[in-house]
Amino acid sequence: MEKVRFGIIGCGNMGTKHAENLANGLIKNGVLAAVCDIKPSRLDAMRALYGDTIAYFDCAEDMYKSGTVDVVHICTPHYDHPRLAIEAMDHHLHCVVEKPAGVYTKQVKEMLTRAESADTLLGIMFNQRTNPAFRKMREMIQNGAIGRIKRTNWIITDWYRTQEYYDSGAWRATWVGEGGGVLMNQAPHQLDLFQWITGMSPVRVRAFCHLGKWHDIEVEDDVTCYCEYENGATGVFITTTADAPGTNRFEVTGTKGTLLFEKGRLYYTELDIDEREYCFATRAVFATPPAKETVEIAIEGENTQHVGILNNVANAVLGLEPLYAPASDGIHGVELANAMLLSSLLDKTVTLPIDEDLFYEELKKLIATSKPRQIREETVTKV
Ligand SMILES: NC(=O)c1ccc[n+]([C@@H]2O[C@H](COP(=O)([O-])OP(=O)(O)OC[C@H]3O[C@@H](n4cnc5c(N)ncnc54)[C@H](O)[C@@H]3O)[C@@H](O)[C@H]2O)c1
Predict the structure, then answer these.
(1) What would the pLDDT profile of 152-163 be if each residue is shown by its tens digit?
(2) To bridge 17 with a disulfide, which of 195, 313, 321, 383 should be the other Cys (CB 3.0-4.6 Å)?
(3) What is the C-alpha to C-alpha distance for residues 259 and 332, in angstroms, rounded to an integer?
(4) CB atoms within 10 A of CB 221
(5) 0.85 exceeded by pTM
(6) Ligand 1: residues within 6 Å at CB?
């Protein structure tokens, strides 16, 4: 195989951008070979761009059977990610799913179970994992730079969305079409990084998810969650699509220091002595553990985002490197999102792993009350 042939399923905001990146040669070992959308208008728009250089399909199954692609990239609304990925694997195709891996853990597990016996790769578009600041933060924590983690605090509120955004698609911000709000659409990146960077997943959460608090929508657009970890650490995760200008501040405190990611920059404060040791060893009353001056960590490397992940997928298919974001990692963010919503719906603390049958029952109740959005005009705005 000279170049890996990609087929995009779903030519909306995100699929259009991935197609453009491939067509513009940004994926060294990959080419755009085909696109698929159930809407004729989307296929017409793609035809106007790519003419007869690629193949066009109005049904994923036909693309799978066509022999025109090696990898499919699923860029449809969330509920369909697992089903389309399973069908792709059944056709011996490699696959990348957009985030989130699915709406609820039961369906993600079906996809991951199928992947275990597949002869192809299954990746996920966690494009924020390519951010060198997050990679550095993860590496430093893994290397013990802050000791044992005591506290994780992420306030990610700079994903501002207007009512017009929600009104741009009938599936958006509905239980029946999207399956959730900020936890399912904007924050899946941070719900992944929150666990990937720290190497820890919460075991208990108490969350408050406000449904349609700031927008005319069915789903959550404002979330505050308290988390507890196995090692006794605690955390807070806050997100909304309504704060302006909002912030993106992720602080991880350990027994030997603190790492702070804020607005793209990374800061490190190192204690001279482990705080747990100092607390009981010192005879001073109001002292604090001696620390080095806070330093900004130099971030090396480019944040290649979507292009970086697709380059990695093409290389992984060619056997040149492992997948950087395997879809099996995608279950953690979905489970945390499900746990937060469940906690809020039940108005109590939820233990992880969650009772996924209970979650699904609660989700079905929400779906039963849900209606596709009435929209003036469906619009596509390239990401
Ligand atoms: N990684 C990122 O940075 C990022 C950014 C934006 C969106 N996304 C994700 O991309 C996905 C799509 O979001 P969007 O904003 O592009 O949505 P969108 O509504 O703009 O596009 C979705 C497209 O999928 C098509 N579609 C629906 N069902 C289909 C099917 N069964 N077969 C073929 N085509 C189908 C629709 O007709 C539409 O054109 C979501 O999972 C979203 O979370 C990821």
Answers:
(1) 999 999 999 999
(2) 383
(3) 22
(4) 25
(5) yes
(6) 9-15, 36-39, 42, 60, 75-78, 80, 98-99, 125, 127, 169, 185, 380, 383
